Amino acid sequence: MIKAIIDIGTNTFNLLIANNFDSEIKVLYSTKRAVALGMGGITQGIITQSAIERALIALHEFDKIISGYNVDQVRLIATSAVREASNANEFINRIKEELGREVEVIDGREEAQLIYKGVMLCHEVKEPLMIMDIGGGSTEFIQVNAEGIESLASFKVGVSRLYQTFPCSDPFSKKDVDTIERFLNDNTSRFFRDKSIEVLIGSSGTFETFYELIYGKPFPKSNQSVGIDVDPFLESLDALIFSSQKERDQNDFIIPIRKKMAPFAAVKTRWVIRQLQVKKVFISPYSLKEGAML
Q1: Which is more confidently placed, 88 or 294?
Q2: Cβ contacts of 31 within 8 Å, gap of 6 or more
Q3: pLDDT recorded at residue 134
Q4: d(CA 216, CA 245)
Q5: Cα separation of 283 and 294, whole Å?
Q6: Each residue of 229-283: pLDDT tens digit?
Q7: Is residue 22 predicted with pLDDT exceeding 80?
Q8: End-to-end distance of the chain based on CA atoms, in angstroms?
Q9: Could you tell me which residues are beta bridge partners of residue 132?
Q10: How many CB atoms lie within 10 A of CB 245?
């Protein structure tokens, strides 16, 4: 069966068209668009009109792409920005009116479970690990052992939310970093308390950018997770945290929507690594959209 999944994220919309064979997928087409659905409204719990228009442009474009394939099923899955918006119904109704498609709005736990399913397609669990998915509105954490999910959580600490909540200097000062880390601690610390997990898996998106900054080349196209030693990874995060906007603007490995928010993602990732005492990092090319295929 050929399926199309549209992941309506807070920052990025992802389109995946694939052939689904039981517990495997064969990717036929994949692309993304930087929509910034949560920009200007996520901290107020709304989707702005300009964001709705950007979203519809991207969805119309995706619809044209889908029409070129013999697709049996199309799923539109919305996450943090939509599930928290007081005008979510207006947005969903516009999609129904213009494209004739329904939108599934999933909660944070459902989102985490789909991320887990996607990551497990490309990574064999040999030891306890933590999956981390950096979103624009929320960030999901899934603690995994050989038997499956041990615990999971979704926190409202996404990079778009952090960017719109904390006006930081350029580049970040130590005070800026301390403020963000206190926020992370206040909003997630109970989940990390007494946890020591040596393996962290970052699911696609921002983690692929981290890889490209370390190695100076595109993230490999693969259906397997890619390992990175933690020391160079931390060095790269430190450099990104204290980089200037000008430096990021000149870096072709950082896509435009991440150029402003990348230091927030780096602070958060470094904080998690320290909380868990991580010794090894993997990056998964698969995430929510691949999990939704199953």
Answers
A1: 88
A2: 14, 15, 62, 65
A3: 97
A4: 19
A5: 20
A6: 999 999 999 999 999 999 999 999 999 989 999 999 999 999 999 999 999 999 9
A7: no
A8: 11
A9: 141, 202
A10: 13
Using a pLDDT cut of 70, give the percent of the chain over it. 100
Q: Are 79 and 6 in contact (CB under 8 A)?
A: no
Q: Could you give the strand order of the β-sheet that contains 226-229, starting from the edge strand earlier in sequence?
A: 148-155, 139-145, 129-134, 199-203, 280-284, 226-229
Q: Please report which residue ranges of the chain form alpha helices under DSSP H.
A: 49-67, 80-83, 88-99, 108-120, 159-165, 174-192, 206-215, 230-241, 245-249, 256-259, 262-276, 288-293
- How far, rounded to the nearest angstrom, does the alpha carbon of residue 246 sit from its chain's CA centroid? 24
Distance CA 222, CA 285 (A): 7
H/E element, 228: strand 226-229
Name the pTM for this structure: 0.96
CA-closest candidate to residue 193, choices 113, 120, 275:
275
Where residue 46 falls among pLDDT bands split at 50, 70, 90? very high
Which residue type does 134 have? I
| DSSP 8-class letter at 26 | E
HSE-up (13 A, CA, CB side) for residue 157: 27
CA distance 111 to 90: 22
Note if the bond before 171 is cis, omega within 30 degrees: yes
